[in-house]
Amino acid sequence: MRAVRLAELGGPDRLHVADVRAVAPGPGQIAVRIARAAFNRRDVYITQGLYPAISLPCTLGSDGAGTVASLGDGVAGPPPGTPVVIDPQLGWVEGGPPVSDRSSILGMPVDGTFAQYCVVPAANVHRTPTGLTDDEAAAIPLAGLTAYRATVTRGRVSKDDVVLVTGIGGGVQTFVLLFAKHVGARVVVTSGSDEKLARASALGADVAINYATSPAWYKDVRAATGGGPTLVVDSVGGETLARCLEIARPGARVVVYGGTTGDATIRPYAIFWKSLDVLGTSMGSPSDFAAMLALFEEGLRPAIDRVFGFHDAPAAARRLLDGKQFGKVILAVD
Ligand SMILES: NC(=O)c1ccc[n+]([C@@H]2O[C@H](COP(=O)([O-])OP(=O)(O)OC[C@H]3O[C@@H](n4cnc5c(N)ncnc54)[C@H](OP(=O)(O)O)[C@@H]3O)[C@@H](O)[C@H]2O)c1
Question: From the CA of 248, how far away is ligand 1's center (Å)?
Fold first, then answer.
């Protein structure tokens, strides 16, 4: 089969299509014929050597959708040909700790979805929600799961919340907007691009603020929210996170799942005086994934940036590296 492989570090241009041996599903596993995959920031970090415990060569890709190709011993279904989408969180036992020696993410060290076939545990294979295209289904897994746990499970979003979503161009953040609007919350987004802010407004964002042209963006957020957000979902980190703590309303939840711009110097005063709940989160549990996917049966649709051909994986990864995307960057697998 053909796969997009990474054999050595050096950035997106090291991604290349190669012929590799297709692996048959073992007991308890399913082989999925991948139709579409999608990129995450993680894939780019791995090409750059900026991810822990990199093991090469490897097939990258955490997001994948397609059809069931074959079933391993002891797997009852779904039958071959069924449209499915893959949960990329491996080894998270429901009710157990979120991180353990057994947990990992599909797409390094385990070969991932940038391939014609991908073999995963049967429990990670879910029927594609009704009416979703392959592009839409492939856009959902890692980002949708992370956003769902951040916004719903950890953030406990409700219609009464005023939610701040920083850096709306991020793949995960577009899902946070989607889920927060779905429950009827008021949502404020920031971005360094007016074009991305316009797209976010079209998806339902109530207030859109450009952090690049408005360096005191956090003051604009405080003014627009009448006293600060009650829920913040952040993956920007750095000074952005420090400002979020500063402007959050007393009693607010501040959920953190990433740190794109690096470490933050924070004021403990902002946390203890306002009794903030600062909540960390990563990916999500099997039940988070199932509950998240069910929302797409209710008519939600993910934001898709662009679809790249299989041989254009380096260009697709560069689009994330350059921060050009709004929503998910898709890889057509052929
Ligand atoms: N813990 C987990 O389970 C998990 C899962 C997924 C991702 N992550 C992490 O979360 C982060 C985002 O992931 P992603 O895949 O959504 O990445 P992404 O698509 O590359 O998005 C990154 C976004 O960050 C925003 N940004 C960058 N610099 C900014 C600044 N100075 N101020 C405000 N916003 C800024 C940009 O938004 P604009 O373009 O709108 O300005 C950019 O689009 C990454 O660090 C990733 O490693 C963690």
Answer: 20
Residues whose CB falls within 8 Å of the CB of residue 177, separated by 6 or more in sequence, listed in order? 165, 168, 187, 189, 200, 203, 204, 205
Cα(170) to ligand 1 centroid in Å equals 5
What residues does ligand 1 touch, defined as CB less than 6 Å away?
40-42, 142, 146, 166-173, 190-193, 196, 211, 235-236, 240, 257-258, 260-261, 282-283, 320, 323, 325
How high is the mean pLDDT of the chain? 96
Ligand 1 atom 3 nearest Cα: 282
The residues, any chain, with a CB within 8 Å of residue 69's CB and separated by 6 or more, are 30, 31, 32, 33, 80, 117
72: Cβ–Cβ under 8 A, 6 or more apart, which residues? 24, 25, 26, 27, 28, 29, 30, 31, 122
**Which atom of ligand 1 sits closest to the CA of residue 41?**
15
Q: Are 212 and 188 in contact (CB under 8 A)?
A: no
Residue closest by Cα to atom 10 of ligand 1:
258
Number of neighbouring beta carbons within 10 Å of residue 226: 9
Q: What is the pLDDT of residues 221-275, one digit of tens each?
A: 999 999 999 999 999 999 999 999 999 999 999 999 999 999 989 999 999 999 9
Question: Global pTM?
Answer: 0.97
Which ligand 1 atom sits nearest the alpha carbon of residue 261?
28
Which of 91-100, 160-169, 208-217 has the least mean pLDDT? Answer: 91-100
- Give residue 259's identity as a one-letter amino acid code: G
With beta carbons less than 8 A apart as the criterion, state whether 274 and 252 touch.
yes
Tokens of 91: 């080894």
Structure tokens at 317: 């990864």
